[in-house]
Structures
1.
Amino acid sequence: MPKILQGNWRGHSDRLKISNKHVYVIPKNGAAVSRVKSVKYRYLGHRTYKYYQKFTHGGSYSANIKISVNHRTVKVNGHYYRK
């Protein structure tokens, strides 16, 4: 993932953790998340990225990430997160 997106992002009811190897949405109640096998991303244009990840126990997930102009907020599937 691009360096500008990496790190911990806080949302209203959950947390978003982005690194080179995974993208996790972690609920505030501490529920478990699935292990990630691989993550691929691509630049769609105008501060927008699409990522696709495969899980080790099967299944996959994809979503769009849009970063704000000031790089302080991101939008993932309609949910906003702050640094």
2.
Amino acid sequence: MSKGHIVEMGYLDEIKEKYVLCSTKEHIQGYLYKKTNDENIYLCKKEEAKGDIQPANFETIFEALVKGGDKI
């Protein structure tokens, strides 16, 4: 991931296995998907995830592929 943009090649299923959504108060490297009053929700690689972790969905992965750093 570079500046919130997924820069990997491959099938979406393979990319989905490498990325997760995580909720954290910290700023981490990844695609800022949503902000709430208490925390930020990022799409990031599994090994960089902190806080509450959920599986990534295709909609969020597609948004990071297309929009990338627009939300960072």
